[in-house]
Specification:
With 386 residues, the protein is α/β, with parallel strands linked by helices. The protein is 31% helix and 26% strand.
Length: 386
C-alpha cells in the first residue's frame, strides 16, 4: 500500500474515533448544536464561514465521513501538536496573506481522488462579527473542482469566542448546511454567479442575529483586549489610545463605555452601538488616510521582531525594532519592504502578522499588546497607489 493511501486510511480511522468525543466536547464547551449534512455520491467541497478556532471540528460534526481541511501554514508551528496534526489529521496548507496556487492545486488533486475537502472561504476569522469578503479566486476554484458544493454557515461563534479576546463565552452556537449544488448545476453557472451564491449562503452578521433573537454570552472580561480590533477613537481621532479592562472600553481622551453580554456597547452619547459599526467607520477613515498620507508614517509600534519563515515552518529572527507603515513601504527595525513587493498582509490569531515577497515569507511578532489590523487595513488601500 502506498504511503499516501496508508496515511489516508490512518486519518480516516482517527476521524471516526474522535467524532463522538468531539461532539461531547463542543456541546459542553460552546453549547453547540448542528444539523447533519446530506449524504452525497462522489467527492464534496464544503465551504463555510469562519468564526472560531474550533470551526474544523464544528463543521466536521455535520459530516461524519472523513474530509480534508484547508488550514493556514501557521498550524505547522505548534510544536508537538503540529506533529500530531500532520500524522492524524488531513490538512492542506495555505500561506495567509497570499493567493496560494499550490494549495488550490492540492485541493483539486484531493477532490480528483474522490476525497472530501472543507475550506473556510474567507481565509481568515472575522474580528467584528460579519462574514469577510470572499476572494474571486474561490469561485474559480469551485468551478474547476467539478465536484458537489455544499455551503455551510456557523452562527453564534463570534460572540462565543471573539477573535480579539482571550476569554471564551458560553451562550449558544449552531451550524448547518445552507445549500447543496451538484457539479451539473455549477457547470452552467458563471464564476460571478458562483461568487454571488457564496456571498449569500455564507453571510452572517452577529449583530443582526442578536437583534432578531438575543442570546446572552457571559464573561467576566467582556471587553478585554478589544483594542486589538478597534484602534481609532471616534472622538479624538487618535490611533492606539484605546484601552480595555473587564467590560470597560475607553480612550485617553475620556470616551468611556462598557460592552454588555449581548455584544453591544452601553453608555451615554456613544458614537456606535457595536464593534462592527465602529470598524466600518474606522475602515472608511483608513481609506481617507491612504489618499492623504504624506512622507511621515501612518503609525508605528515599538519592539517588533521580524522573522523569516523557514522550509521546516520554524521562524528565524532577522531584526528587532519599531514597525512602521509609510505610503510606499513597510519597515521593521533596519529592514524596509516596498509595498509594491508585498503579495499581501495576513493576520494570525489576534496579534500575528505575516507577509510574503519574492525574498520569502515573513512573520512579525511582539511580546507587547498591540493592534496589527490597522496595518492590514491601510495596506489594502495603499497598495492600489503603488
Amino acid at each position: 500500500m502506498a504511503e499516501d493511501e496508508r496515511a489516508y486510511q490512518r486519518q480516516r480511522r482517527t476521524y471516526r474515533t474522535l467524532y463522538k468525543p468531539a461532539k461531547l466536547l463542543m456541546e459542553g464547551l460552546l453549547n453547540y448544536s448542528y444539523t447533519l449534512g446530506p449524504k452525497i455520491e462522489g467527492p464534496c467541497l464544503i465551504l463555510s464561514n469562519h468564526v472560531t478556532d474550533f470551526d474544523p471540528i464544528l463543521v466536521g460534526l455535520s459530516f461524519p465521513e472523513h474530509m480534508y481541511y484547508v488550514a493556514g501554514e501557521n498550524v505547522m508551528r505548534m510544536g508537538f501538536l503540529s506533529k500530531l496534526v500532520t500524522r492524524y489529521a488531513s490538512v492542506i496548507q495555505r500561506v495567509k496573506g497570499t493567493t496560494d496556487a499550490e494549495a488550490a492545486l492540492q485541493i483539486l488533486r484531493t477532490l480528483r481522488k474522490g476525497r472530501n475537502v472543507c475550506m473556510f472561504a474567507e481565509g481568515n476569522r472575522t474580528f467584528t462579527g460579519e462574514t469577510l469578503p470572499i476572494a474571486p479566486a474561490t469561485a474559480k476554484l469551485v468551478k474547476m473542482a467539478r465536484s458537489t458544493l455544499i455551503t455551510y454557515r456557523l452562527t453564534g461563534g463570534y460572540l462565543s469566542t471573539p477573535r480579539w479576546s482571550t476569554h471564551r463565552r458560553k451562550g449558544r452556537m449552531t451550524g448547518a448546511p445552507v445549500g447543496v449544488y451538484p457539479p451539473e448545476e455549477l457547470k452552467k453557472m458563471s464564476e460571478a454567479e458562483i461568487a454571488d451564491l457564496l456571498a449569500r449562503d455564507l453571510y452572517e452578521n452577529a449583530y443582526e442575529t442578536q437583534n432578531k433573537a438575543p442570546v446572552a454570552y457571559k464573561s467576566k472580561a467582556l471587553a478585554e483586549t478589544l483594542e486589538t480590533a478597534l484602534y481609532l477613537c471616534p472622538r479624538c481621532h487618535k490611533i492606539d489610545t484605546l484601552h480595555s479592562r473587564g467590560d470597560r472600553f475607553s480612550c485617553d481622551c475620556g470616551l468611556t463605555m462598557t460592552l454588555d453580554q449581548f455584544g453591544f456597547f452601553q453608555g451615554e452619547d456613544l458614537p456606535f452601538k457595536t464593534p462592527l459599526d465602529w470598524d466600518r467607520w474606522q475602515t472608511g477613515e483608513m481609506e481617507k488616510l491612504a489618499e492623504s498620507l504624506g512622507d511621515e508614517p501612518a503609525f508605528f509600534d515599538e519592539d517588533q521582531t521580524l522573522n523569516r519563515k523557514e522550509d521546516d515552518h520554524s521562524l528565524t529572527p532577522l531584526t528587532t525594532g519599531p514597525m512602521a507603515l509609510y505610503r510606499d513601504r513597510l519597515t521593521v527595525g533596519d529592514r524596509a519592504f516596498p509595498l509594491r513587493d508585498l503579495r499581501g498582509i495576513g493576520l494570525i490569531q489576534r496579534q500575528g502578522m505575516v507577509f510574503s515577497t519574492a525574498e520569502g515569507d515573513f512573520a512579525i511578532t511582539a511580546s507587547r499588546l498591540r493592534c496589527v489590523r490597522k496595518y492590514q487595513t491601510l495596506f489594502e488601500f495603499l497598495k492600489g497607489n503603488n
